[in-house]
Each structure stands twice: as structure tokens, then as C-alpha cells.
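Look at one such:
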Amino acid sequence: MRKAIPAVLAALLWLLTGCAAGPEKSAAAAGSPYFQAGRRCAAWSGAGYYFTANRFLYYAGEDTMSPVPVCSRPECLHDRETDPEKIALCNAYFEPYMRGDAAVFFSGGRLYVLTPDGVSLQDGAARFALYEVSPDGASRRKRLQLRRPAGTQMPDTVLISGGELLLAAASYDEEENASVDVGAYPLTGISHTPRPLYRGGSGGYVSALLGAGDFLYFQELDGSGVYRQRILNRETGETVLLGQLPAYKDLSVLECVPFAGGLIVSALRGGEVCLLKADPDGGDPAEWVSADRLPVPSAPLMASDDRYLYLLQIRDTGGEPHTILTALTPDGRAAASLDMTALVPGFQEVQLTSGRHLLINAASHGENSLWYLDKDALSGGSVRPVRFYGGT
């Protein structure tokens, strides 16, 4: 039987933009910190970062972290332009969707941006477009057109993997009942219909779509308001509920992320949080980090890159809750544990990319800002975030 998550943890696990969450989330306060695992508004190119902010696509070289709009059209003023017609002509301008700026990817040496593409006047179907943008901003072209049923929201969680755009989205009928699905669109041409990978029941929602090897990992909110962690084998098409595998019968599974050649699973055992390391298919789990080795004894949000497993946890100080970011090495050792509430004014989320830096979103006094954190300095104990876009 699953154990209820205390209210202070439920607030941490609230989804804002397709982030990771626990298995029994109900309504919780907006503004809680999270990892950006859904919209993916930043991408690592091998030498720097492409990111979207305030309707524009930017590039910041890793060494300078000085952002410039990704447009090389002559006489274009980019984000300094005030004429709406001229703004729309900028190669770096992309319409946002309801939960934030357009999604950006860098895959196979190519730069992609996913953005709304209008609504069909015939049947009310929503359209989305995947653009391929030249890395220098000289050109952009529509590579893929996605057509979704009427009532479909902009997909909250997307991923490019194996030459396909993987998309999880919810559709709503006239009575506001939701159904969810995960589909794959090839990147080779215009396509209206995805190759179906998973179809959920009514009243559901899919978030935190992650991929590693032959497997996809995502969480589904079912009609009863419970989040369940699923693993999908892309070769066989089979989907399993992680928490229902026999090896997890005495645990309440919270979430999982691929890391260091395996799968890290957070779970509750006897009311205490533990981290397990399992095979990529979820099998053969073994304790990786026990509750007494966690910086904060609360359920974490998890994310990973090629260097660290990251935890976001809430520390209750008796006043304003503080968000603690911890970076764990492949052997489970804590390389750093940082109080993000104290370090970054208005801290909101961490955007995960490869490369040297973690990117951080913040909002303070009505202004949005982006910060970076040097991963190389995490183990030194003196690392501090640096603002590189927005804010004052």
C-alpha cells in the first residue's frame, strides 16, 4: 500500500512545466522549485548554449557566457526591435506557448526549435512546428509539422532521441476530460500523425519524459490523481509500472532517472527516503544512497547529466523554506550541497544540459533572469552562481 507524502513534500513535487514529481501529488502551491525536464529551453552545442527567453533564441559561448540573438539577417535589431512586423521577421524570434518559451534542442549537429504553429480553422486542431535553425542564425526552415486534435495543449514534455521527436501531450474533450499519449515523429519530413508509443487512460497527464538507450522513462498522472513511474521499451513496445515490479513490493516508488549506466530510483521505505540503483529496465535494484546520507531527509526531485545526479530538496528552516541543490557522483558521494534560495534571488528552476555549466532560471521583482553554475567548481566548495541574462 502506498504511503501518503506529507504536505511540505507535495508542494515541492508540483509540476509547473513537465518536471519530475512524486507518486501522489495533488494540488500544490505554484512557484515551488523544480528541474526543467519538460520544455527544455536550453541545449548544449558542444561549445556553448542555445536557449530561449522572452520569445527569442540566444547563444552563449561556454567561455564567455555572453548571450547574442541567433539571427544574422542584415539590419535586424532582434530583441531591440519595437516594430511587431519587423520582430516577426527576425530568425531568432519564436512564439512562446502557454507555459513558457519555445523548446530548443541540439542533436546530431543540428539546432531545432519547437513552437506553436496556429490552429486549423476547419476542425480546431492545434498545430506545432519544429524548425531547424542554422547555428549562425542565417536561416531557418520548418522541418516537421505536428497536427494534434482539437483541445490539445502545447506538449509539456518533448525529447529528440534516435532520429525522432518524442512527444507527450494531453488532449481534452468538450467536457474537459483529458487523455494522454506518447508518440514519435520522424525528423525526415512533414508528418501529421505520430508513431504511437503509449496511450494512457482518461483523466491522465504525462510528464518528465526521459530517454536512455532502448528505454523511455516517464510519469503518468492517472485519473485518481496518483503519479506512477513507467518504463517503456522502445524495441518491444512494452510498458511496465516500476512500482509494481516484484523487487519494489516493500517500497513506494517516487521517480527514476537514468544515470551512470543504470537507473537511479527514489523511493520511500518505512517512511524514509532512499535512493536505489537498478538496471536500465528497472530490475535488480540495490541501495545506492541511504536516508542518513542525504543532505536533507525529504523526498527529492532528481535529474542527471553525464557528470552528476542532482537532487532538489526542501529544507524547513522554521521560516521561509530553502531549496537545497545536491550533486552526487556516480559512486553516490555528495560533491556539493548548495542553498539555492540564499544564492540566487527568486530561484525557480534548474535547466540541465551537458557542458561545463548548470543553467538556472530565476524571477525577482517582476524580472526574469538566467544564471550559470560552474560544474568544475562544485567539488571545491566555493562555487557561486553568476547571472548572465536579464535582471538587474
